[in-house]
Amino acid sequence: MQNDRKILVWALSALLMVGSLAGGLVLAQSGRTTTPAIAPATTVQSPEIVGPLVPVTGFSPIVKKTGPSVVSITSTSMRKTGDDDSLSQLFRGFPGFAVPDDPQFRAPRKQQAAGSGVIMTSDGYILTNHHVVDSATKVHVVLADKREFDAKVVGTDSDADIAVIKVDASGLPAVTIGDSSRVEVGDVVLAIGNPFALGQTVTMGIVSALGRTGLGIEAYENFIQTDAAVNPGNSGGALVNTRGELIGINTAILSESGGNQGIGFAIPSNMARSLMNQIKDTGKVTRGYIGILPQDLTPQLASSFGIKDTKGALVASVEDNSPAANAGLQRGDVIREVNGKAINNQFELRNQIAELEPGKTLTLKVLRSGAEKTLSVKVAARPVDIGSSKSAPTPDAGTSGKLGVAIQDLNPQIAKELRISASVTGVVVTEVQPDSPAADAGIKRGDVVQEVNRQPVKSASDFRNAVSGSSKSLLLLINREDKTIYTVVEREG
Question: 72 catalytic, yes or no?
Fold first, then answer.
């Protein structure tokens, strides 16, 4: 009996405690943040009012500020059907089938593309991507407030994928342009555009990386990378910071599916604004040029040139009578600075030179045979016939096996077939064995070896003598389609 009474008292105490805790939970949800005291049963307490609820607005003020500056673009072009047309692809691979000869299948067809743009000035200048309006016969713009305009293409730059279009209007909501040089990895950003032609859409993310180059997307790259969702149709749209300032023009995505996978790229606003001003003023973009072909320094190349790090850009070739040649720049020089700014790779060098105004003089700090030199080069305008992809590849270095090449003397007939200048001397690679050090180093059939370990090679015997030493690393100067690059072949000692 005594034990039964103890159990009953314990149970009643537990019930009272649970009731008190439950009351505390209710009060906490009503706004109280302190632990409630146990009050007499006859006392009824009103919930404490802390203050009015403050609505959470998130990023809506930024969208209200910048959204009106972002437009949807539809471009119309007339394209001829051909072997690469979707119709041809449909029939490709089916024996006995071919694209019909009926003229209706070969006549130009109307095609439409959807993209985005950013209003840069109140009088109607809009920035977008070159690929959004490329070959367009008609460009139609829809503002965020649903007003519609036909636009004309003022000018484009395919090398950076920038285009400027103009609508006949005034008082438009121009975007506030930010300083993209102040952007940092981790900054919160919003992407505003017209994905999949849905209409204006906003996504949020962060800046994932800066200065992305070497992607092969454009000839001149210096991308801001973001994980804010960017999809087809976002091209030409705005990347803005939390102050509502434009810091980039969304341009491309890295995706296996064709949709967002968290890696998007934007052209920095400083670069985009500079190109836009040139297009507005002259209808085109003029870039600086000094007449060199640069390549990146790999650890193997740096070691071969006696350099302790891989910072800088290696001069693979210097064009005759170019500004660089006239200034005394030589093949094998390593450019470390341009106008006092450090250079880390060939892409930074190309961008730095391209941004310079023709006629200006730049100062280069170079390493030559271990000694530092300073050269002054007068910048020229890049010739129109210079290919936009003129940057040297950086072959990977092999680590084992024999050299793995067959060679023969270069003669005028072979030089002509390989599109190499008649003045070039060296030996032609006629065969590259698979999985050999030469193959791993990126050497290809048809390459002409001009130097081995900085010594000229003019015949097959010169080549054999040069590679017969005990050196494990061989620094080769390769001429490929009349452009020279350095590469290192590693072999077993």
Answer: no
